[in-house]
Amino acid sequence: MGTDRKDQKHERLHWLYIKYLNSNTTFAEDKLLGQALRNDPSLGTQFQLWEREWEQSYAGNEATNKSWIKTRDKFRAHTMRVHRHRTWWAAASVVALVFAVGSLIGFGVARISRPKQFVYTVPYGHTSKVVLPDSSVVWLNAGSRLSCTDFSGASVRQVSLKGEGYFEVRHMDSKPFVVSTKRLHVQVLGTKFNVNAYSPNTTVVLLSGSVVVHANNNKASSRILLPGEQYQLSAGGKVSVSNVQAADFVSWKTGSLTINEMTLSEFFRKLENYYGIPVRVNADIENLEYSGVVDLHGPITTALSDLSNVLPIKVSHENKGYRIKRK
Fold first, then answer.
1. What value, to the nearest 5°, has the Cα angle with vertex 215 and ends 240 and 238?
2. Cα 154 to chain centroid, rounded
């Protein structure tokens, strides 16, 4: 009997914490979570595990934790429901969360006692517009993740990016804006630019203003870009700067891909990044070039079907993805 009560308490805390991450809790429920954490500090570790499960479920991860699914189903009838909220969220395509373990401890005095930590994630097949704490605006591409603080007390506005983002940065002379990816840094004061940190290559395309870009741990790779220029860091570490049609590189934020003399291997890699589904191109056609516009509003099957009507290709299923062959 005691074990049953303990399990029920555990499940209820799990349910309340997920509600908290979705900003659905009442003040009374917030206080309840804070009190539980004060009474049992070891819950901090459990909360972090639940938070990671929650974040993965919103990033298109199919391996959603079974215990979370069980809890969600059990309490589905009692709230405005994480399952329904996930459906809403998939349509909105983004969520900002405050890391809760540190903030819950301060309930009763103030909800947040230190700079807020935000994480924005976008599922595959969607894009999203995000307004940062400094009023800068970021469009995030599919499968992307952006993290930052609220910039309070910081001398630099620093954000971390995985995936792809288009930035319109608010000008602040006294506080530079820095985008960090796994392989490079971009520093600006106020400008418009696109960062593509999907592998294998990492690129920065400048639309207006100016930026300084350098590969991590390699100041010699530093370059100052002018509008219409692209900085590319290859998988092997080679740096190149070229002139491009900058607007083509941000068409994804309005739901399309604009392609200008791009090889099929590179183009289908973009589709793969967007939908999160493997697309393999046969070697005999991977260097064929394609120009055009592809609509991303529908599923990948629609995009592939449309392409097979205008390109000399045929599409077949392969494992959990697709194979592109010569027609």
1. 35
2. 23
